[in-house]
Amino acid sequence: MDSHEERTQVERTSPSLRRAYGMLALATAGFAVNFWAWALLSPLGPLFRATGTLGKLSEADVALLVAVPVIVGSLGRIPVGALTDRFGGRVMFSIVSAVTIIPVLFIGLLGLNSYGALLVGGFFLGIGGTTFAVGVPFVNAWFPPERRGLAVGIFGAGMGGTAVSALTTVSLYKNVDTRAPFIITAVALAIFSIVAWLVLRDAPGRTAPKGTMVGRVIANARLPISWQACILYAVSFGGYVAFSVYLPSYLKVAYSLDPGDASAKMAGFVVVAVIMRPVGGWLSDRFGAIPVLATGQAIVIIGSAIAASTPLLQYIGTLAFLGMAAALGAGSGATFALVARVTDPARVGGVTGLVGAAGGLGGFVPPLIMGDIYGRTNSYAIGLLLLSAAAVATLVMTLTVVRSTAQKAALEREAAGR
User: Fold this and answer.
1) What are the tens digits of pLDDT across the range 22-44?
2) Quick one: pLDDT at residue 123?
3) What are phi and psi of 205, to 5 degrees?
4) Is 271 left (phi over 0), alpha (psi -120 to 50) or beta?
5) Element (H, E) at 294
6) How many CB atoms lie within 10 A of CB 146?
7) I need a labelling partner for 161 at 20 to 30 A (CA). Which of 96, 238, 252, 271 fits?
8) How many other C-beta atoms are found inside a 10 Å radius of the C-beta of residue 354?
């Protein structure tokens, strides 16, 4: 066994690495629970419209209802990421999870019969979506650079909490009790909040950054990797979020599926994207983030163009959507593999907050556009073609500007002997 193999074997069995994977597993579970809460309204949107429970809702009304938690969860990542750099993941995971219980119970116990109350509850439900900006710097600090792509990708798979919501919310709402999905989610959040406080530990040697939070946010925003990764993530994760919140409505209208079947198919989309996120991180560790990003963007260009023609769902349509799910998931993982390799560890939380906000905003806008376009044209084709065009622009940027930034960071690491 040569020295490299011996070193790798030691790394795999070292207590510190085993502990790091334990922290990763717990953080991923917490992320999934919070994303479960964050996505509670999405599966119910088509149901509210179909049953008339909240009165006569338009497609735009449903789009706004499911998009409000996304916008809050997105913008909230900027301060939460900066606060995580300051106070650490253990504190922030516990606080964010505990606070998210309040809007979950408000919606479940008081808000289900009023569209206005649902909008208010959905606004604060967005707090659960900010946990992404807590987990990335927390996980990143536990792993060496050559393992961060996979580690952050595994953590990102916690976005599968949206699949849990898609698979359970409508069924519990219709067959058990309208309050059931919210009460169960609140209990899960409470359990994780307590476990996080008692068990989670920040990585050894973590140091809090100096300066004010506003000053750090401004400094992070000036980094080239920040705005570049914001665009990449707005298309990759934003595309995933847009489909995960809007796909049930799209499938119901475009293919006349019932709400339960539409939510189940959306869950399949989510599962594929979730599985591919750590794969994207791992591939980035092996081959670099640029090839992974470029390949995923090419698949999105083709898949969204095909979907724009509303092909037969059973064959071509399913393949197009699942192909896009795989590409968007891998692209999301590759984006943060790139951030982890290029960014100073002390700034990862702040940069993650900015990039995560861009990704969430990327998911907020498309459902509103799709709803408005459908209302005007009775077709989703234009919206899907706009996604294809956005992927084309992002592919060009990846192969030019982003590649240059990655190469410059690699040269700087070599010069520093890292």
Assistant:
1) 999 999 999 999 999 998 888 88
2) 92
3) 85, 5
4) alpha
5) helix 289-307
6) 11
7) 252
8) 25
The pLDDT-based confidence of 2 (bands split at 50, 70, 90) is: very low
Reading the block at residue 75, the tokens are 């913008």
Which ranges constitute the DSSP H helices of 126-258? Answer: 132-142, 148-156, 161-175, 180-199, 213-221, 224-255
**pLDDT of 330-379, one tens digit each?**
998 899 889 888 887 777 778 888 888 888 777 777 777 777 787 788 77
- Residue for token digits 């040569």? 2
The length of the chain is 418
Band of residue 166 on the pLDDT scale cut at 50, 70, 90: confident
Cβ count within 10 A of residue 222: 9
Record the tokens describing residue 216, joined without a space.
């750090």
Predicted TM-score (pTM) of the model is: 0.75
327, 205 Cβ separation under 8 angstroms: no
Other C-beta atoms lying within 10 Å of the C-beta of residue 339: 28
Give the Cα-Cα-Cα angle 287, 289, 291 (nearest 5 degrees): 70
